[in-house]
Amino acid sequence: MTALLLTMxxxxxxxxxxxxxxxxxINGLMGPSIAAAGPEGLKVMGELxxxxxxxxxxxxxxxxxxxxxxxxxxxxxxxxxxxxxxxxGMGISTGMLTAIIAFGIGLFGTKPAMEELAxxxxxxAQAGSEEARTAILGRIGAARGRLIRFGGIGATLLLITxxxxxxxxxx
Length: 171
Hints:
Order of helices and strands: HHHHHH
Number of strands: 0
Mean pLDDT: 92
Radius of gyration: 19 Å
Structural class: mainly alpha
Shape: elongated
């Protein structure tokens, strides 16, 4: 059991740091910089997509959530209800719930918006007429709006997750 516990803890912490750090970096610094760069910023999104950055982030999120569930199972003696009623259990459960919701938002909201932006960036590069470029720019604005909205919600949920997990022991 000790080897499983240590393995899950290391996976949970390392992958969680990558996931949350990536989300905070993208939403706080990189995203606004890409937006400020205008159409040229779409090239950066394309490069990140080529390197499968977003898939790696979602994989890290999945490992974080799954290893976290294993850790809760171990700590709660097989999901014993009394553990969830403890202050520590409530703190960890809050973080677990917000992380799972953030993962769902990333998978079903943020990722599709990013993929649409990348595809629109490629279309923009191929657009021959000013009329086509204007139409694509409108769609880019809508996709960027969804990306910002979902990204902000995900970042807020992950901040709650980190705070809940970091303070659960002291509740």
